[in-house]
Design a protein that fits this description.
255 residues, alpha/beta, Rossmann fold, 13 strands
């Protein structure tokens, strides 16, 4: 595990949770909390997060359902160690299991003991910047978290489909300008697709899109009112504040 001098311990969800994370590389931000807010938390269901990092999204979900057990998959061994530490830090170690595996490979998932069609919900925040179109970060951790190769989304979606039971639910966050790619990748295995756009300000184009889809679901499509993060003065909107600090959920989490 990295030393304390290489990490920081930070409060999320208004101090309800604390996470230790690297000072350099990918750090917990809005995306993880939005992903958690868009994911239903039912204690009777099995939930898994792919590419879990230090565990922020999964912990935020587990905190909403006191008996819920969550599985985390992360390829980076340093982040796996931090996720296990954070589970203990938040007294969730009896409800959180962390596996070091490649979210893009069902063979890797099998190798750590995960089974096909064994989960009710999958959530994921895959690396969504096309490395061919964006300048890759010189930091290897940030580059791994943010830059994806061609076909990456399909590999993650294929893993989710393999893990999910029939009628199981996938929730993901992606770049808003690539929603068409997401829909195309989800079909035909996933249906009953629901979409919620995230705008930095009311007058700005969306920067993220949250998508919920059901394995084997029908052809229905649903769009929810967008979430606006900041007002004209740059302050968090009341809705965003309730999500980021108070742990309120988004409409996507209702199904």
């Amino acid at each position: 595990m990295t030393t304390d001098s290489e990490t920081s311990e930070d409060a999320i969800l208004g101090g309800r949770l604390r996470v230790r994370q690297p000072l350099r590389g990918h750090r917990v931000g809005h995306d993880a909390i939005l992903l958690a807010a868009a994911t239903c938390a039912r204690a009777t269901e099995r939930t898994i997060e792919l590419g879990a990092g230090v565990g922020a999204a999964a912990f935020a979900i587990a905190a909403r359902a006191q008996e819920m057990k969550v599985t985390l998959v992360e390829i980076d061994p340093v982040l796996c160690a931090l996720a296990r530490h954070n589970a203990r830090l938040n007294r969730l170690e009896d409800r959180v299991t962390v596996f070091g595996a490649d979210a893009e490979s069902t063979e890797s998932l099998k190798s750590v003991g995960l089974s096909a069609e064994s989960f009710d919900r999958v959530l994921m925040n895959p690396p969504f910047h096309d490395a061919r179109r964006h300048n890759a970060s010189p930091d290897p951790g940030r580059r791994l978290a943010h830059s994806g190769e061609a076909g990456l989304l399909k590999r993650w979606v294929d893993s989710a489909a393999w893990l999910l039971k029939t009628n199981g639910v996938l929730v993901l966050i992606w770049r808003a300008d690539a929603l068409g790619d997401v829909i195309e990748t989800l079909q035909p295995v996933f249906g009953a697709i629901a979409v919620l756009h995230v705008h930095p300000r009311e007058d700005a184009a969306p920067i993220r899109v949250l998508v919920r889809a059901e394995k084997g679901g029908g052809i229905s499509r649903k769009s929810y009112p967008p979430l606006v993060l900041n007002d004209e003065a740059g302050r968090p909107t009341p809705v965003a504040e309730a999500i980021m600090r108070d742990g309120k959920t988004l409409p996507l989490a209702e199904a």
